[in-house]
Design a protein that fits this description.
There is one protein chain. The chain has 399 residues and is α/β, with parallel strands linked by helices. The chain has three domains: 7-113, Uridine Diphospho-n-acetylenolpyruvylglucosamine Reductase, domain 2; 118-184 and 195-205 and 215-266, 2-Layer Sandwich (Uridine Diphospho-n-acetylenolpyruvylglucosamine Reductase, domain 3); 276-395, UDP-N-acetylenolpyruvoylglucosamine reductase, C-terminal domain (Uridine Diphospho-n-acetylenolpyruvylglucosamine Reductase, domain 1), CATH 3.90.78. The protein is built from nine helices and 20 strands. It has helices at residues 34-37, 72-84, 135-144, 236-241, 253-266, 292-306, 308-312, 328-334, 366-384; strands spanning 7-8, 24-26, 43-46, 65-69, 89-92, 98-100, 109-113, 118-120, 126-130, 169-170, 173-174, 179-186, 192-196, 215-223, 289-290, 316-318, 324-326, 348-350, 358-360, 393-395. The strands form six sheets. The chain has a six-stranded mixed sheet, with helices on one face. The protein is globular. The two termini are 13 Å apart.
């Protein structure tokens, strides 16, 4: 079984860190682990919860234990002790970027990060958030204080600590644009230190924390702008909605946040508990990066099949030297997978609002979502010669 040791995105309710005077236990705890945890402050131990209850795809088996940590020190103490004992861990913010096997119990301990304090300096624009803070609440706090730079990242599900792990981005902005540093627990040494963003090798949906056991993010620090204006509007759909007059225009942060939320809600990309169109991991595939000749070949094929007008609308953006980034959602649609595919009655379907979201319609198992992901990937490869890479972390299953 493949185990991921990084920090996964989370959904949840924004709360300040609470201080639990001693370890609390729900259910019958694993007796072999109890001695390792019993004197750690600010944790609670749960032996009953499954990953289906902690992930936004609502699938996943039960781990040995789930340890909820409400302070950074509790995270440090829990992780270092379990690491020293050789216990496999899943560090979890809440599971919005995670697809977990559900066919048998998981031989691991979930360490869920729930510390959520946020502080900022409205004059300098520096904002600091603990890793368990719900990301959209961090954005809301910044916008309310008139700080610009992350308003385009509104509505993205997840925890603050997860944002640098995969360099979260949307609507022309990435966390790399504003990240100063992260507070990191080095799992090899047990040391805690602030690491500059320049040490993380941040790139498109990537950092050197992703897919590794290098460390656990405890907090992030961002440099925002204090004049109440957004980051330059670079994304066409958002700029059009705000009726921007030219490229790079800036608008009041509150207006941009509202526009982004409206766009995301229209695509089913904002979690609503009773709406199965939002039971997803967000964008399931990353946008592929290809060379210009491959992009031209794809455009020519679309031209033959669908005409000049559709071919000329093919999204493609510069992505470094001799590289272009294409739209995964656009390719999925042109490969014949419409919104809602494969149709009513299927336990796992494409969202009826956005072809990039694979959704659990309420009764799906992990195998259903995996089968749908493979069908989409293979169909796009057959049609266009492009291999779509999944964005969520796969735990115990493989595409």
């Amino acid at each position: 079984m493949h185990l991921f040791h990084g920090l996964i995105n989370s959904y949840g309710v924004f709360t300040a860190c609470s201080h639990v005077p001693q370890t609390t236990v729900r259910g019958v705890a694993d007796s072999s682990l109890t001695p390792l945890l019993e004197d750690i402050a600010d944790i609670s131990v749960d032996s009953e919860v499954s990953l289906a209850q902690l992930t936004t795809l609502h699938v996943g088996a039960q781990p040995r234990l789930t340890v909820r940590c409400t302070t950074p020190q509790a995270v440090v103490d829990t992780v270092t002790r379990l690491d020293a004992a050789g216990v496999p861990l899943l560090i979890l913010g809440g599971g919005s970027n995670l697809l977990v096997a559900d066919d048998e119990p998981l031989d691991l301990v979930v360490v869920r990060i729930e510390c959520a304090e946020v502080s900022l300096d409205p004059h300098s624009g520096v904002l600091r958030a603990q890793a368990g803070a719900v990301w959209d609440d961090v954005v809301d706090t910044a916008v309310a204080a008139g700080l610009g730079g992350i308003e385009c990242l509104s509505g993205i599900p997840g925890s603050a600590g997860a944002t640098p792990v995969q360099n979260v981005g949307a609507y022309g902005v990435e966390i790399a644009d504003v990240l100063l540093r992260v507070e990191l627990l080095d799992r090899a040494t047990g040391q805690v230190s602030w690491v500059p963003a320049s040490d993380l090798d941040l790139a498109y949906r990537y950092s050197n924390l992703k897919f590794t056991s290098r460390g656990v993010v405890l907090a992030i620090e961002l440099q925002l702008t204090p004049e109440g204006l957004s980051a330059p509007l670079r994304f066409g759909e958002l700029a059009r909605r705000l009726e921007a007059q030219g490229p790079g225009e800036r608008r009041p942060v509150a207006a941009v946040r509202q526009a982004v939320l409206e766009l995301r809600q229209a695509k089913g990309m904002v979690l609503i508990p009773g709406d199965h169109d939002t039971w997803s991991a967000g964008s399931f595939f990353t946008n592929p990066v290809v060379d210009p000749q491959h992009a031209s070949d794809i455009q020519d094929k679309v031209r033959r099949l669908r005409g000049d007008e559709d071919a000329e609308r093919m999204p493609q953006f510069p992505a470094g030297e001799n590289q272009l980034k294409l739209s995964a959602a656009w390719l999925i649609d042109r490969a014949g997978f419409a919104k809602g595919y494969p149709g009513e009655g299927a336990p796992a379907r494409l969202s009826t609002r956005h072809t990039l979201a694979l959704t659990n319609r309420g009764s799906a198992h992990t195998a259903d979502i995996v089968a749908l992901a493979r069908t989409i990937r293979d169909g796009v490869k057959t049609e266009f010669g492009v291999v779509l890479e999944p964005e969520p972390i796969w735990l115990g299953v493989h595409i």
